[in-house]
Amino acid sequence: MKRIMEYIDSSLTAFPKSKYSEKFRQNLIEEVTERANDITHAGLSDEKAIEDIIISEHNDIKAEYKEYVKELNASKNKRRNFLIKLFISVIYFLTVLCLYFVISSATKAWSVTWVLPVCSVIVYISVILFIPIATLSKKSTLFVTQTARLILPFIVFNYSTVAFLIFHFVFGFEKSWLVFIAGVVLMFVADGIYVEITAERFAIFFHLLYIVPAFTMLYIIFAVLNIIPWGIGWVMIPGSLVIVLAVIVIRLIMHNRADNSLGEEEPEL
After folding, report:
1. Which are the contacts of 112, defined by CB distance < 8 A and separation ≥ 6?
2. Averaged pLDDT for residues 6-34
3. What is the pTM of this model?
């Protein structure tokens, strides 16, 4: 084992001595010692042959050490980022609680101010849910991207709930339930944007599928708010069908032009 120890020490001389290099050296010595015992128990007793086998299995200790340090730094950064996020979360909730008690004590409107901490928790959850969406969307597998896609409507619903609580309990808006209908429209819009950004293969079909229900929801909202009369606003629904047909025609024209441009290209000789 003397030759192996000399090999390990000579390989590590290229790096400054530190607690990382010492820890790596100890771990490596334990590993090669255990490996040498395994080989010996397997029936090979020639020390030189054992050393040759172990050295061949660790033919680039410098690269192993660099990978070891890289993993340590990654773990350290991950732990540090977690502590930073935890600290920010604690500060966030302490600030919300302070504001809640200050505003409630000053206004004596305890029956209304409870909306502040509840909405703060919902917003916090929604922000946290953006993290898996950003992470999962970078991966190309169908299951992963669809999982991220399913989280998106839940986030929109959360923000719709926040808007409802504010309109209903803070401002006393009687028709605050319309927020949830608007939330459905926003779900269609958010999903349409998502499938476009992630280059979903059938993105155009989802766009077409959402147009009619989205216009129907808008018709209900505008009519309830007396922005348009019920008897006239219904034309938005057949009007949305016209938009669907127009989108289909435009896509077909663009597709035909693309095919024609490919057909006009001269073949390479």
Report:
1. 169, 170
2. 87
3. 0.71
